[in-house]
Known about the structure:
Residues 53-154 form the Fe2OG dioxygenase domain. The chain has 212 residues and is of the alpha+beta class.
Amino acid sequence: MADGYTLCHTSRGVMQEVADAMSRVADTVAAALAEDLGHDAGGGEPAFPAGCDGTTCFLRLNRYPACPFAPDTFGLVPHTDSDFLTILCQDQVGGLQLMKDSRWVAVKPRSDALIVNIGDLFQAWSNNRYKSVEHKVVANAKAERLSVAYFLCPSYDSPVGTCGEPSPYRPFTFGEYRRKVQDDVKRTGKKIGLPNFLKQSPVDAMNHGLCF
Protein backbone atom coordinates (compact mmCIF):
# COMPACT_ATOMS: atom_id res chain seq x y z
CA MET A 1 0.00 0.00 0.00
CA ALA A 2 2.82 2.39 0.84
CA ASP A 3 4.45 1.91 -2.58
CA GLY A 4 1.11 2.42 -4.37
CA TYR A 5 0.37 5.51 -2.29
CA THR A 6 3.79 6.98 -3.05
CA LEU A 7 3.44 6.25 -6.78
CA CYS A 8 0.02 7.88 -6.86
CA HIS A 9 1.25 11.05 -5.19
CA THR A 10 4.40 11.12 -7.33
CA SER A 11 2.35 10.81 -10.52
CA ARG A 12 -0.06 13.49 -9.31
CA GLY A 13 2.83 15.83 -8.65
CA VAL A 14 4.33 15.24 -12.10
CA MET A 15 0.99 15.82 -13.82
CA GLN A 16 0.50 19.03 -11.84
CA GLU A 17 3.90 20.24 -13.04
CA VAL A 18 2.95 19.41 -16.62
CA ALA A 19 -0.40 21.20 -16.27
CA ASP A 20 1.27 24.28 -14.78
CA ALA A 21 3.85 24.41 -17.59
CA MET A 22 1.21 23.99 -20.31
CA SER A 23 -0.93 26.64 -18.59
CA ARG A 24 1.93 29.12 -18.86
CA VAL A 25 2.36 28.27 -22.54
CA ALA A 26 -1.38 28.67 -23.21
CA ASP A 27 -1.53 32.03 -21.40
CA THR A 28 1.51 33.32 -23.28
CA VAL A 29 0.19 32.25 -26.69
CA ALA A 30 -3.31 33.59 -25.96
CA ALA A 31 -1.89 36.96 -24.87
CA ALA A 32 0.26 37.20 -28.02
CA LEU A 33 -2.67 36.38 -30.31
CA ALA A 34 -4.93 38.82 -28.47
CA GLU A 35 -2.31 41.55 -28.78
CA ASP A 36 -2.14 40.87 -32.51
CA LEU A 37 -5.88 41.63 -32.60
CA GLY A 38 -5.40 44.93 -30.80
CA HIS A 39 -6.21 43.78 -27.27
CA ASP A 40 -3.88 45.51 -24.80
CA ALA A 41 -4.32 44.10 -21.28
CA GLY A 42 -1.70 46.55 -20.04
CA GLY A 43 -3.93 49.53 -20.84
CA GLY A 44 -6.54 48.77 -18.23
CA GLU A 45 -8.32 46.04 -20.18
CA PRO A 46 -8.87 42.70 -18.40
CA ALA A 47 -6.42 39.90 -19.14
CA PHE A 48 -7.36 37.59 -21.98
CA PRO A 49 -8.91 35.12 -21.95
CA ALA A 50 -11.24 36.17 -19.16
CA GLY A 51 -12.58 33.59 -16.73
CA CYS A 52 -9.76 31.06 -17.21
CA ASP A 53 -7.77 29.77 -14.25
CA GLY A 54 -6.50 26.54 -12.73
CA THR A 55 -10.01 25.46 -11.75
CA THR A 56 -11.58 25.83 -15.21
CA CYS A 57 -8.83 24.49 -17.52
CA PHE A 58 -7.95 20.81 -17.61
CA LEU A 59 -5.33 18.31 -18.70
CA ARG A 60 -6.23 15.13 -20.58
CA LEU A 61 -4.08 12.04 -21.12
CA ASN A 62 -4.93 10.15 -24.31
CA ARG A 63 -4.01 6.59 -25.22
CA TYR A 64 -4.79 5.18 -28.66
CA PRO A 65 -4.18 1.40 -28.84
CA ALA A 66 -2.72 -0.16 -31.95
CA CYS A 67 -5.42 -1.24 -34.39
CA PRO A 68 -5.03 -3.82 -37.19
CA PHE A 69 -7.69 -1.99 -39.24
CA ALA A 70 -5.70 1.28 -39.39
CA PRO A 71 -5.65 3.71 -41.17
CA ASP A 72 -9.39 3.33 -41.80
CA THR A 73 -10.11 3.56 -38.07
CA PHE A 74 -10.41 6.83 -36.18
CA GLY A 75 -8.56 7.19 -32.91
CA LEU A 76 -10.49 10.44 -32.62
CA VAL A 77 -13.25 11.50 -35.04
CA PRO A 78 -12.97 14.79 -36.97
CA HIS A 79 -13.90 17.72 -34.72
CA THR A 80 -12.99 21.19 -33.52
CA ASP A 81 -12.16 21.96 -29.88
CA SER A 82 -14.74 23.84 -27.80
CA ASP A 83 -12.20 25.98 -25.93
CA PHE A 84 -9.94 28.98 -26.52
CA LEU A 85 -6.69 27.10 -27.14
CA THR A 86 -5.43 23.53 -26.89
CA ILE A 87 -1.78 22.81 -26.13
CA LEU A 88 -0.84 19.32 -27.31
CA CYS A 89 2.22 17.18 -26.68
CA GLN A 90 2.26 14.03 -28.83
CA ASP A 91 4.68 11.13 -28.98
CA GLN A 92 6.63 10.05 -32.06
CA VAL A 93 4.02 7.60 -33.38
CA GLY A 94 2.00 10.25 -35.19
CA GLY A 95 -1.58 10.04 -36.39
CA LEU A 96 -2.77 13.61 -35.87
CA GLN A 97 -4.19 15.21 -39.02
CA LEU A 98 -5.48 18.75 -39.66
CA MET A 99 -7.90 19.94 -42.29
CA LYS A 100 -6.18 22.45 -44.59
CA ASP A 101 -7.37 23.63 -48.00
CA SER A 102 -10.12 20.98 -48.00
CA ARG A 103 -7.75 18.07 -47.45
CA TRP A 104 -6.28 16.24 -44.47
CA VAL A 105 -2.65 17.01 -43.68
CA ALA A 106 -0.60 14.84 -41.32
CA VAL A 107 1.19 16.65 -38.50
CA LYS A 108 4.71 15.25 -38.26
CA PRO A 109 5.69 14.67 -34.62
CA ARG A 110 8.57 16.72 -33.24
CA SER A 111 10.10 15.95 -29.87
CA ASP A 112 11.15 19.60 -29.41
CA ALA A 113 7.78 21.21 -30.14
CA LEU A 114 4.23 21.52 -28.81
CA ILE A 115 1.16 21.87 -31.01
CA VAL A 116 -1.26 24.76 -30.47
CA ASN A 117 -4.80 24.40 -31.79
CA ILE A 118 -7.14 27.39 -32.06
CA GLY A 119 -10.50 26.49 -30.50
CA ASP A 120 -14.08 27.58 -31.18
CA LEU A 121 -14.11 30.22 -28.44
CA PHE A 122 -11.04 31.98 -29.84
CA GLN A 123 -12.58 31.97 -33.31
CA ALA A 124 -15.70 33.64 -31.90
CA TRP A 125 -13.70 36.11 -29.78
CA SER A 126 -11.51 37.04 -32.78
CA ASN A 127 -14.55 37.61 -35.04
CA ASN A 128 -13.35 34.77 -37.29
CA ARG A 129 -9.91 36.25 -37.90
CA TYR A 130 -8.49 33.09 -36.34
CA LYS A 131 -10.19 29.83 -37.29
CA SER A 132 -10.83 26.82 -35.10
CA VAL A 133 -8.93 23.95 -36.70
CA GLU A 134 -10.73 20.72 -37.59
CA HIS A 135 -8.57 17.73 -36.70
CA LYS A 136 -8.68 13.98 -36.20
CA VAL A 137 -6.47 11.10 -35.09
CA VAL A 138 -6.04 7.99 -37.23
CA ALA A 139 -5.05 4.71 -35.63
CA ASN A 140 -1.69 3.04 -36.08
CA ALA A 141 -1.58 -0.63 -37.04
CA LYS A 142 1.51 -1.55 -35.00
CA ALA A 143 2.02 0.94 -32.17
CA GLU A 144 -0.10 2.65 -29.57
CA ARG A 145 -0.11 6.45 -29.50
CA LEU A 146 0.07 8.65 -26.39
CA SER A 147 -0.62 12.35 -26.12
CA VAL A 148 -1.18 15.00 -23.44
CA ALA A 149 -3.60 17.86 -24.14
CA TYR A 150 -4.20 21.02 -22.09
CA PHE A 151 -7.49 22.83 -22.73
CA LEU A 152 -7.73 26.57 -22.03
CA CYS A 153 -11.35 26.91 -20.92
CA PRO A 154 -13.23 29.61 -18.99
CA SER A 155 -15.83 29.04 -16.28
CA TYR A 156 -19.27 28.01 -17.51
CA ASP A 157 -20.80 31.39 -16.64
CA SER A 158 -18.09 33.41 -18.42
CA PRO A 159 -19.21 35.40 -21.47
CA VAL A 160 -16.99 34.68 -24.46
CA GLY A 161 -16.96 38.31 -25.59
CA THR A 162 -15.29 39.79 -28.64
CA CYS A 163 -12.10 41.58 -29.63
CA GLY A 164 -14.18 44.33 -31.23
CA GLU A 165 -17.48 45.21 -32.79
CA PRO A 166 -19.28 44.41 -34.93
CA SER A 167 -19.20 40.71 -34.09
CA PRO A 168 -20.94 38.12 -36.27
CA TYR A 169 -21.94 36.28 -33.08
CA ARG A 170 -24.57 37.05 -30.49
CA PRO A 171 -23.42 37.14 -26.84
CA PHE A 172 -23.11 33.70 -25.22
CA THR A 173 -21.40 32.04 -22.28
CA PHE A 174 -19.18 28.99 -22.34
CA GLY A 175 -21.88 27.06 -20.48
CA GLU A 176 -24.43 27.90 -23.18
CA TYR A 177 -22.00 26.77 -25.85
CA ARG A 178 -21.24 23.44 -24.19
CA ARG A 179 -24.92 22.70 -23.60
CA LYS A 180 -25.78 23.48 -27.22
CA VAL A 181 -22.98 21.21 -28.48
CA GLN A 182 -24.22 18.37 -26.29
CA ASP A 183 -27.83 18.92 -27.42
CA ASP A 184 -26.83 18.91 -31.09
CA VAL A 185 -24.81 15.71 -30.72
CA LYS A 186 -27.76 13.99 -29.06
CA ARG A 187 -30.20 15.30 -31.66
CA THR A 188 -28.19 15.03 -34.88
CA GLY A 189 -25.20 12.83 -34.00
CA LYS A 190 -22.71 15.60 -34.72
CA LYS A 191 -21.47 18.92 -33.40
CA ILE A 192 -22.75 22.06 -35.13
CA GLY A 193 -20.90 24.56 -32.96
CA LEU A 194 -20.44 28.25 -33.78
CA PRO A 195 -23.08 28.59 -36.54
CA ASN A 196 -25.69 28.19 -33.78
CA PHE A 197 -24.60 31.52 -32.32
CA LEU A 198 -24.43 33.65 -35.48
CA LYS A 199 -26.52 36.82 -35.52
CA GLN A 200 -27.36 35.93 -39.10
CA SER A 201 -28.65 32.57 -40.22
CA PRO A 202 -25.94 30.11 -41.37
CA VAL A 203 -27.13 30.53 -44.98
CA ASP A 204 -26.80 34.33 -44.81
CA ALA A 205 -23.40 33.96 -43.15
CA MET A 206 -22.17 31.69 -45.94
CA ASN A 207 -23.31 34.30 -48.46
CA HIS A 208 -21.20 36.88 -46.62
CA GLY A 209 -18.09 34.70 -46.65
CA LEU A 210 -18.22 33.33 -43.09
CA CYS A 211 -17.37 29.69 -43.76
CA PHE A 212 -17.13 26.95 -41.17
